[in-house]
Design brief:
The complex is a heterodimer of chains A (about 90) and B (about 170). Chain A is of the alpha+beta class. Chain A has helices spanning about 20-30, 80-85; strands at about 10-15, 30-35, 40, 45, 50-55, 60-65, 70-80. With about 170 residues, chain B is of the alpha/beta class. Chain B has a six-stranded parallel β-sheet, sandwiched between helices. The chains are: A alpha+beta (about 90), B alpha/beta (about 170). The interface of A and B includes residues 17, 18 and 37 of A.
């Protein structure tokens, strides 16, 4: 997941459990997609317990990012093309 | 030596079946709980003695603890970056016959759930640390759980591992 570090991201949630991040997405964002572990968002294969919720908020994509020592972060990244690609996925 | 032939594998170019050694992936968690490195080396040794080829996947710190402890690679075989392992399994470039995921925090459960979803391997969760019982309750995917309250002393976890003896299965 090397490319995440080079993204211009905002941390929405920090040191959360995976479940907390999923609940936060479903409670906070009206638009989201459920995907399976390994699904590619940007150049990152997402880690998580299925189903993994990825939110869309305008041109922003909000997705979980898990590191072994730091738990799960919820990241918010602006990318019009990626948001459009995810939006085109079937719900 | 135990030999293994998994489905779709182990055929020579002439189509004749061949036997290939079984493979195991050890997914390491954050190395902040001391028993992980000890149990990983113990498990690697048991797997190798059973003819199973182990590969370790962890973050830099977890991998380095093992590499420094075994400089002549008496126990360790291949060691790879955890993210790279996830990519290779997801993209179907590689898979393993069994997968051991070390868990002492929520991230460990998350990685185990991921492996259960993306890999065809038989998944074993090795759960330890102060909160091992809470973590056990979060496991809701198919796997064999090996758990003990072990932080500094690896013997309770070794005992739990020996009872399951995954290298014999």
């Amino acid at each position: 997941m090397g490319c995440v570090e080079s993204m211009n991201y905002e941390i929405v949630l920090r040191d959360a459990t995976f479940k907390e991040s999923r609940d936060y997405i479903k409670k906070t964002y009206a638009e989201f997609r459920d995907v399976l572990p390994g699904f590619k968002v940007f150049d990152t294969h997402v880690i998580g317990l299925p189903p993994i919720a990825i939110a869309l908020d305008g041109d922003f994509v909000i997705f979980p990012f898990t590191k072994p020592c730091h738990g799960t972060f919820l990241l918010r990244v602006e990318d019009k093309n990626e948001a459009a690609r995810l939006r085109a996925l079937k719900k | 030596m135990k030999l293994y032939q998994s489905e779709g594998m182990g055929k020579s170019v002439t189509g004749e079946p061949t036997t290939q050694p079984a493979t195991a992936l050890l997914v390491l968690g954050c190395p902040q709980v001391p028993v992980q490195t000890s149990i990983a080396l113990y498990l690697i040794n048991r797997l190798k003695k059973a003819g199973i080829v182990p590969t370790v996947a962890g973050n830099k710190a977890a991998n380095t603890l093992l590499v420094v402890a075994d400089p002549e690679r008496h126990y360790l075989g291949e060691v790879m970056d955890l993210d790279r392992a996830v990519v290779q399994i997801t993209e179907k470039k590689r898979d393993f016959d069994c997968c051991f995921v070390f868990i002492h925090n929520d991230a460990g459960v998350t990685y185990a759930g991921t492996m259960s979803a993306i890999s065809k391997a038989k998944v074993y969760t090795i759960i330890y640390g102060e909160h091992y019982e809470d973590l056990q309750k979060q496991i809701d995917f198919p796997c064999t759980t090996i758990a003990a309250k072990a932080v500094h002393n690896p013997l309770p976890l070794k005992k739990a591992l020996d009872e399951v003896a995954p290298w014999v299965a």
